User: Which sequence fits this backbone?
């Protein structure tokens, strides 16, 4: 019996990496917004849910494949995030962090209950013609949806990393994270950069939502499950760190998958909480400290 | 070049500056002197648009700038090198300097970077180090270098000598003179009276939020009122 489980271990690890890549995307949005704006976006889960529904309706009504929808939902999420920060959160909060916290919390309540009202609480799933087709690695079959998600998540992380290190906008984002007045004095429009950062964070959710839909379900509360895991990843990887979010996503993904394999689906979650507690005790700054 | 007319400014209900009149001409070094708490930094923040004056006007080349925001003022070429440097501690020296040309001087970025490194050769060895790990003197060099990267038309230096060792202070003032000799106008806001007056063309002394003394630097140095005004003796 145990040897059977062991032979499944490589498959479990690969499976965990695949799911971890999507976790990483959700965490990336969270960590970016936290690292630059120093606020926790309580509406993160609700916005992920919105992205999932967007992909769902694009598929149901216009018959657009969720992986194609990435190209629509991601930019749309960016615009949504930018707008809601620039003319909503930023304006209403008067620049006070505690107000931003309350506004994002309020926003999540509004979004979730609107979803409940318009889309009902039923779980929705879609099935793609190639959902069950897979790629033979020799020791395991890799489903196409998971493989696509994995590659797309990596590509997005690399693009984001390039944006942050190679472009002026990225440098400005990192500058604003630590020194707002200094940024204003070199002519950086700080409010714009905040909104861009919020937009990018929400855009990550847009992409994650599209990739989750084919392998998961959507209801008005789906987003929250992922955000709790994303919090663990952010703490594990280090608040504000892009590389930390990616690495943390993989670690949590594999922990969950292997834990599920050894202990069963629900007890397997114990590994995530265990990591969370251990990190808080032994390395509260996370693997990559507080770098942006 | 700069004309400050009957300026009043402050924070919330407290007026720090009262009826300040200052003028700066093309190519001049104008020192603004005063001890702690007289309103020098308030003056600088008002000039660069970080705070709005309660009344009065500031003109930069005959354009009213006192109602504009910092981004527009940077666009026009008035560059403020703030007290305490306000560098980006998590970014490398190179990235800090590059962001100096975020809005102005972008096409000549590589050329200007090379020029800044010629003025501050020490920064060449530190180029990929994060700015937060530099010594105070090196940070001040990065701050001034970051200002120069934007091809300023007038440079506003707020306490560049603060926190530097006496030897470095001497070097810093020589460098400011050298930068000015290239034709750049400089407003030098300082506590260090003697050395500021030795490189400045003209000076204004601020006490209790208003200009108490002004004139040519060489004349002010001999003026017995200076001690009175500055030290309150």
Assistant:
């Amino acid at each position: 019996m145990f040897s059977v489980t062991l032979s499944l271990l490589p498959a479990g690890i690969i499976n965990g990496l695949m799911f971890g890549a999507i976790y990483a995307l959700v965490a990336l949005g969270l960590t970016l917004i936290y690292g630059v704006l120093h606020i926790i976006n309580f509406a993160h889960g609700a916005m992920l849910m919105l992205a999932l529904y967007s992909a769902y309706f694009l598929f149901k009504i216009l018959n657009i494949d969720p992986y194609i929808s990435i190209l629509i939902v991601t930019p749309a999420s960016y615009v949504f995030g930018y707008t809601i920060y620039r003319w909503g959160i930023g304006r209403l909060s008067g620049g006070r962090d505690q107000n931003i916290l309350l506004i994002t919390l309020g926003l999540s309540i509004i979004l979730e209950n609107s979803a409940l009202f318009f889309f009902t609480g039923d779980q929705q799933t879609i099935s793609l013609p190639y959902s069950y087709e897979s790629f033979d690695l020799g020791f395991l079959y890799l489903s196409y949806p998971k493989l696509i998600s994995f590659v797309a998540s990596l590509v997005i992380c690399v693009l984001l990393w390039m944006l942050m290190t190679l472009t002026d906008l990225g440098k400005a984002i990192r500058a604003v994270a630590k020194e707002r007045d200094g940024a204003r004095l070199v002519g950086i429009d700080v409010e714009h950069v905040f909104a861009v950062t919020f937009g990018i964070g929400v855009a990550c959710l847009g992409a994650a939502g599209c990739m989750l839909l084919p392998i998961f379900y959507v209801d008005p509360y789906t987003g929250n499950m992922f955000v709790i895991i994303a919090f663990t990843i952010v703490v594990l990887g280090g608040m504000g760190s892009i590389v930390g979010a990616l690495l943390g996503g993989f670690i949590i993904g594999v922990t969950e998958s292997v834990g599920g394999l050894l202990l069963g689906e629900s007890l397997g979650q114990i590994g995530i909480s265990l990591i969370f507690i251990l990190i808080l005790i032994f390395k509260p700054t996370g693997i990559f400290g507080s770098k942006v | 070049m700069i004309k400050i007319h009957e300026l009043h400014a402050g924070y919330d209900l407290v007026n720090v500056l009262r009826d300040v009149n200052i003028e700066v001409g093309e190519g001049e070094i104008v020192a603004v002197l005063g001890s702690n708490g007289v309103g020098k930094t308030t003056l600088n923040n008002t000039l660069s648009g970080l705070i709005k004056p309660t009344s009065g006007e500031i003109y930069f080349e005959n354009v009213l700038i006192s109602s504009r925001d910092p981004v527009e003022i940077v666009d026009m070429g008035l560059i403020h090198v703030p007290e305490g440097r306000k560098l980006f501690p998590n970014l490398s020296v190179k990235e800090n300097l590059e962001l100096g040309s975020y809005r102005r001087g972008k096409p000549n970025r590589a050329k200007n970077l090379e020029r800044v490194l010629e003025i501050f050769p020490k920064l060449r060895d530190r180029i990929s180090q994060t700015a937060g790990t530099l010594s105070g003197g090196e940070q001040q060099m990065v701050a001034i270098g970051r200002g120069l990267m934007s091809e300023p038309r007038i440079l506003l230096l707020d306490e560049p000598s603060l926190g530097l060792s006496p030897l470095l202070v001497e070097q810093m003032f020589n460098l400011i003179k050298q930068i000015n000799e290239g034709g750049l106008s400089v407003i030098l806001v300082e506590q260090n009276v003697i050395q500021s007056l030795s490189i400045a063309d003209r000076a204004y002394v601020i006490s209790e939020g208003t200009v108490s003394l002004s004139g040519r630097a060489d004349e002010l140095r001999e003026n017995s009122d200076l001690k009175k005004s500055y030290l309150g003796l």
